[in-house]
Design a protein that fits this description.
By secondary structure, this protein is of the alpha+beta class. It contains 6 helices and 10 strands, in the order βββαββαααβββαββα. Helix 4 runs antiparallel to helix 6.
Length: 280
C-alpha cells in the first residue's frame, strides 16, 4: 500500500477522494461499536473511522489496535458529522472512512505517553527510549524548526556569495581557550588527533586562499564541565569575510537574524537593530 498523503494534508475540499495514509496510532476510541483512531505521522493527525457496516474485516482488525501500532490505511475522505469538527486540528473538518487496514508493526505499551505529557517523564527514561521521545510532537517540532533554520542560513549566505566549506574534524591540537577531546590514531601508535574547538584556523586559511566569503554550520567539541552556556558538543554558524569593515559584518549578521526569523517563525524584525556604544 503506497501512501498518497501525509496526516496533516487532507482538507474539506478533498472529500470523496480515495487516499492511503500510514503512521502511528496516536489514540483509539470505540463509540457505539464504531472504532476511531487518530493516525499520526511527523506532520500531524488524521481521524480514521472503522465502521462494521462499511467494511467488517477492517473493523475486526481495528479491534486489536493499540497506542503506537504502525499501520497503513486506505479509505475515502468524508466530512465529519455535524457538530463533531475539531477546530484544534488542521484536518478537523474531515475523517477517513477505512476500506482496508494493514498492521505494519505491533507495539508494546510505551514507557511514557507519546504526547506533550511525555515530557514530564524523567530525563533518563526519555533518553533510554530516545526513539520514542522523538516521536512526541514537541520534539518533532524542534527537529522541523532546526531544519528550517539551517536551510534559511544556507539560503541567506548563498544569496550573498558565500561558499559553504566543510573543514576537517580530525586535526592537531591548537592553542585555544578550552581543553580538547583527543582521539588516538590506530595507524600512528602513540599519536592523537584533536577534535576542533572551532574552525578558526581553517577559515583563516580559506581567507588567505582567496575564498573571501566562507560559512559553515560547524560541529565543535570542548572537553569542559557542563554549564548553561557550555556543552561538550555543539553546533555553531561559523562565518568569515575578507575586504570588509566592521559595519559590513554587523549589517550582514543583522540581515541573517532577520532572514532566519522570517523563514522559521514568520515574524518580521525591524532593521537596523538598536546598538549600544561602548560607553553605554
Amino acid at each position: 500500500m503506497k501512501r498518497t498523503h501525509h496526516c496533516n494534508q487532507l482538507r474539506a475540499e478533498d472529500v470523496g477522494q480515495k487516499v492511503a495514509l500510514a503512521g502511528w496510532v496516536h489514540g483509539r476510541r470505540d463509540h457505539g461499536g464504531i472504532v476511531f483512531i487518530d493516525l499520526r505521522d511527523r506532520e500531524g493527525l488524521t481521524q480514521i473511522v472503522f465502521d462494521p457496516q462499511h467494511n467488517q474485516p477492517s473493523w475486526e482488525r481495528a479491534q486489536g489496535l493499540r497506542s503506537e501500532f504502525v499501520v497503513a490505511v486506505e479509505g475515502v475522505v468524508r466530512r465529519r458529522p455535524a457538530g463533531t469538527d475539531n477546530p484544534k486540528l488542521p484536518t478537523g473538518q474531515i475523517e477517513v472512512l477505512a476500506h482496508t487496514l494493514e498492521v505494519l508493526n505491533a507495539s508494546d505499551t510505551p514507557p511514557f505517553p507519546i504526547d506533550d505529557a511525555g515530557g514530564q517523564a524523567g530525563e533518563d527514561l526519555r533518553l533510554q527510549y530516545r526513539y520514542l521521545d522523538l516521536r512526541r510532537p514537541p520534539m518533532a517540532r524542534n527537529l522541523i524548526l532546526r531544519h528550517k533554520i539551517a536551510k534559511a542560513v544556507r539560503d541567506y549566505f548563498d544569496t550573498h556569495r558565500f561558499l559553504e566549506v566543510e573543514t576537517p574534524i580530525l586535526f592537531k591540537s591548537t592553542p585555544e581557550g578550552a581543553r580538547e577531546y583527543l582521539v588516538p590514531s590506530r595507524v600512528n601508535p602513540g599519536k592523537f588527533y584533536a577534535l576542533p574547538q572551532s574552525p578558526q584556523q581553517f577559515k583563516q586559511m580559506l581567507m588567505v586562499a582567496g575564498v573571501e566569503r566562507y560559512f559553515q554550520i560547524a560541529k565543535c567539541f570542548r572537553d569542559e564541565d557542563l554549564r548553561a552556556d557550555r556543552q561538550p558538543e555543539f553546533t555553531q554558524i561559523d562565518v568569515e569575510m575578507s575586504f570588509v569593515t566592521r559595519e559590513d559584518v554587523l549589517t550582514m549578521m543583522e540581515g541573517l537574524v532577520a532572514h532566519v526569523w522570517q523563514a522559521a517563525r514568520g515574524e518580521t524584525l525591524a532593521l537596523p537593530f538598536p546598538r549600544l556604544a561602548y560607553r553605554e
